[in-house]
Design a protein that fits this description.
- Chain B: It comes from Drosophila rubida.
- The complex is a heterodimer of chains A (87) and B (203).
- Chain A has 87 residues and is mainly alpha-helical.
- In chain A, 56% of the residues lie in helices and 3% in strands.
- Chain A has helices spanning 18-31, 34-40, 47-74; one strand spanning 10-12.
- With 203 residues, chain B is of the alpha/beta class.
- Chain B is built from five helices and seven strands.
- Chain B has helices spanning 2-22, 33-47, 121-124, 134-151, 166-176; strands at residues 83-84, 87-88, 94-100, 103-109, 115-120, 155-161, 180-186.
- In chain B, strand 4 and strand 5 (115-120) form a beta hairpin.
- Chain B is globular and about 70 Å long.
- Classes of the chains: A mainly alpha (87), B alpha/beta (203).
- At the A-B interface, strand 1, helix 1 and helix 2 of A face helix 5 and strand 7 of B.
């Protein structure tokens, strides 16, 4: 389905700050993996390459999840205001 | 202002390189022609900015603070009729920027999509690898925006398509050329079930 032009993937410029608008747009598109998909489909990705990439992504996601859990565990605090003077 | 100066300096440098390459050599014997070719290439590569991977702003990690900001960054149903400089949003002229790794093509259309101006880095006078630089894109954007202002189109919408070094600098160039940019739209064609692309480059 085609999206409505100038409604989808559009950022309005505030106070003539074009750079910020571009940054927001690029950040959203990068996070949504739209740029990644664009780059990936410039050339044919052979099935073995797809398998390798998907497996790598799976491993990375598992590692990141565990690592985040570990960091949260090390950084845990047992006080009313966990980071005094930081709010 | 300082940005402008640096860009001008960059353009001058490029021009000088082109002149150096164009002037015939003093020696009639061309025994070292191939050596000079290597040197010229080195010089040209040195004059060009470092190759930039990715898109500016894409990789930078910062906390999403857009939600608590009061400013309205995203259009809604009422934006189409909102007035900008006396013109409704959906009747503003559109600047289409087509970016690729090797070139940048900028065209200006009216709100119906009828093209009025077109300009690319190649037309601008940058040839070969220099076409695909951010300096070339910026220079092209500055000239086309001057022409658009002559037509009386000062307030515009921008549509960007593709990835490449000219993506950000073309938009910056439009602003430097005196255009008032209302919105930035991404129009990159992305599909999750595309027809089979061409085979991979052999490196």
């Amino acid at each position: 389905m085609r999206h409505v032009q100038f409604l989808a993937r559009t950022v309005m410029v505030q106070n003539n700050n074009v750079e910020e608008a571009c940054r927001i747009l690029n950040r959203i598109l990068g996070k949504e993996e739209i740029f990644d998909q664009f780059r990936r489909t410039r050339f044919y990705e052979k099935p073995y390459q797809v398998r390798r990439r998907v497996n790598f992504e799976k491993c990375k996601a598992i590692y990141n999840e565990d690592m985040n859990r570990k960091i949260q565990f090390v950084l845990r605090k047992n006080r009313v205001d966990p980071f005094p003077g930081c709010s | 202002m300082s940005m402008k100066l640096t860009v001008l300096a960059g353009i001058n440098c490029l021009k000088q390189c082109a002149l150096n390459a164009a002037t015939p050599s003093n020696s009639l014997m061309h025994t070292s022609a191939c050596l000079r070719k290597v040197e010229d290439r080195k010089e040209m590569l040195a004059s060009m900015p470092a190759k930039d991977e990715g898109t500016i702003g894409e990789k930078s990690v910062d906390i999403d603070t857009l939600i608590d900001r009061k400013a309205k960054f995203f259009p809604d149903a009422s934006t189409a009729t909102q007035l900008f400089n006396g013109i409704p949003f959906n009747e503003l002229p559109v600047v289409n920027i087509r970016v690729s790794p090797n070139n940048t093509i900028i065209s200006v259309t009216d709100y119906k999509g009828v093209p009025r101006l077109i300009r690319s880095c190649g037309i601008e006078g940058f040839k070969n690898t220099r076409k695909g630089t951010n300096i070339a894109a910026q220079a092209t954007a500055v000239t086309i925006s001057a022409k658009a202002v002559e037509l009386g189109w000062k307030t515009i919408r921008v549509k960007v398509r593709g990835l490449g070094p000219g993506r950000m600098s073309a938009i910056k160039g439009l602003q430097m050329g005196g255009l008032n940019i209302v919105s930035v739209t991404d129009n990159t064609p992305v599909s999750w079930n595309p027809p089979r692309p061409r085979k991979q480059r052999s490196l």
